[in-house]
Amino acid sequence: MPHGDPMNEYLRCISQQIRWKKAHPTVLWELKSHLQDQQQAYIQEGMDPDAAMEQAIREMGDPVMVGTQLDRVYRPRVPWGTMVTALLLTAAGFYLRFSLEQSFSPGNILGVLFLCCAAFLGAVKLDVTVLLKTQWVYGVYLAGAVVLRFFPLPWNLSLRLTPYFLLLMAPLSCVSLIHHLRDRQIAGLWLCFGLTVIPLIVLYSTLSLLLLLEILLLMLYAIFRGGFPLRSIRTQLQQAAGLCTVVLLPILLLFLRFREDERFDAILHPQRYPNSLGYLYLHLRKFLSMAKPLGPMEEVEQLERYLPFSGADRLFTWSVCHFGWIPALILPLCMVVLLTKAVLLCRKQSGFLTKLCCVSILLTWGMQLLLSMTANLGIVLISSIPFPFLGSKLSAAVNMMLLGLLVSCFMRQGLREKNAAPHTAKTRLVIRKTQNGVDFQIRWR
Questions:
Q1: Among 93, 109, 133, 162, residue whose Cα is nearest residue 318
Q2: CA pair distance 89, 400, nearest whole angstrom
Q3: String of DSSP letters for 362-417
Q4: C-alpha distances out from residue 175 to 178, 192, 243, 312, 344, Å
Q5: Roughly what angle, to the nearest 10 degrees, separates helices 106-125 and 80-100?
Q6: What is the distance between the alpha carbons of residues 296 and 290, in angstroms, rounded to a whole number?
Q7: CA–CA separation, 30 vs 272, rounded Å?
Q8: In angstroms, rounded to a whole number, what is the distance separating the alpha carbons of residues 232 and 211?
Q9: Which residues, other chains included, contact 166 with Cβ-Cβ below 8 Å and sequence gap of 6+?
Q10: 393-427 pLDDT, tens per residue?
Q11: Using CA atoms, how far apart are residues 424 and 415, in angstroms rounded to an integer?
């Protein structure tokens, strides 16, 4: 902001009083527009332009007082309810693992807490709208998939890092690609889908298929919410049907081709295969049926023999058998509350990019919750996915990073995105003259 001009000097003094730096562009644009409107009004009354600007500044008031008042108006809107719920879930996970797993020491808890806090605070500091507009997001996603697939890391790190890398990068990369390719309409839609799916194919696993369904839902949301400027509803429906066919048809063909395979027979008739996952789930459902509403069940020793504790993957099952159904169900209920509060806050986002980022994070958590619960209840015969915020060190860190990105989106509520027109925000600064000076309020457009 150049010095010397009275208006710019006045605005600079105001901006020094506002501690939230991200609010400066929005506030200064609104104030500058108001001052210029007042100047034009005085010029029409016959005043000199310089004198008109001085009069407009004089009526606005002392810049320190104005800046102090605006500092109270523009503050980061921290979603404390969402953050506290997520932190309670993480703390509950640490307590349960410490209670059920003898090797999970307090030192491990402190290590996980430090890792989660670092991941959360680092993600909160990021400007999501700037991060997802950079082209290196997809580059990291593709390069990471190639390294994990073709360059095995020591200590079996490749196998351990793959699921968490996909959970974090696949949805965010899809959001970034949608932003960069949306102007290409139909071609951009299919190019975005294809580029997102390539790393999932490189790192093929059961989780890849599940993330493919999540990417499909994210693409459908972008189609029907104007992410791609398609001409008509008919075109949107045609492209949505095409995406669904491309994703679901191969899965159906694979099922039809291998339905006579022994692995499918083990799913349909698990009692015939004592070493299969389905047979294990038969015992799991049996133990859950014997669990009490409160307190440990009597057959805990049999549970430990047939279903040894395997860390976070079976945490809910062991919680039901050791503490009862009522205490164990508090965990998924807290996660449902967190998702509900996050959805309500997501609906208030003004920018399409931040809203799409929020949707991708909510889909990731929803998928984790659904699959973890169904696997722990013995409904879906797949390898269990850790419960959100209750998993291993890497799982907890990834989910806390996603929480940090979500909070970063929510804190920008009411602010315009970088390089976007100020009037695109859903809120505006209202400046009213009163007997005591000038009053500032934030109102929804």
A1: 93
A2: 11
A3: HHHHHHHHHHHHHHHTT-S-SPPPPPTTSS-HHHHHHHHHHHHHHHHHHHTTTSPP
A4: 5, 9, 16, 29, 20
A5: 160
A6: 10
A7: 72
A8: 28
A9: 199, 200, 203, 207, 208, 211
A10: 788 888 888 988 888 887 765 444 444 444 444 44
A11: 9
CB 445 within 8 A of CB 426: yes
Q: Which residues are 430's β-sheet partners?
A: 441
DSSP 187-249: HHHHHHHHHHHHHHHHT-SHHHHHHHHHHHHHHHHHHHTTSS--S-HHHHHHHHHHHHHHHHH
User: How far, in Å, CA of 272 to CA of 278, rounded?
Assistant: 10
**Cα atoms in the Cβ-side hemisphere of radius 13 Å centred on 63:** 19
Name the strand (E) or helix (H) holding 359. Answer: helix 352-376
186 or 209, which is more confident: 186
Question: Tell me, what's the pLDDT at 177?
Answer: 92
- Cα–Cα distance between 237 and 38 in angstroms, integer? 49
Is the pLDDT confidence value at 4 over 60? no
Interacting residues of 162 by C-beta distance below 8 A, sequence separation 6+: 148, 203, 205, 207
SS3 101: coil
Residue pair 15/404 in contact (Cβ under 8 Å)? The answer is no
Q: What's the whole-number average pLDDT of the chain?
A: 78
- Report yes or no: 358 and 406 within 8 Å, Cβ to Cβ: yes
The label of the residue with tokens 């493919």 reads 212
Residue 302 has pLDDT above 50, yes or no: yes
Q: Kindly report the backbone phi and psi dihedral angles of residue 442, in degrees, each rounded to the nearest multiple of 5, phi listed first.
A: -105, 125
Residue 151: CA atoms inside 13 Å, Cβ hemisphere, count? Answer: 5
The predicted pLDDT at position 220 comes to 93
Contact residues for 165 (Cβ-Cβ < 8 A; gap 6+): 144, 145, 148, 203
What is the rounded distance in angstroms from the CA atom of residue 277 to the CA atom of residue 379? 12
Amino acid at the residue 45? E
| CA atoms of 37 and 165, how far apart (whole Å) | 51
Instruction: Yes or no: say if 317 and 284 are a contact pair by the CB < 8 Å rule.
Output: yes
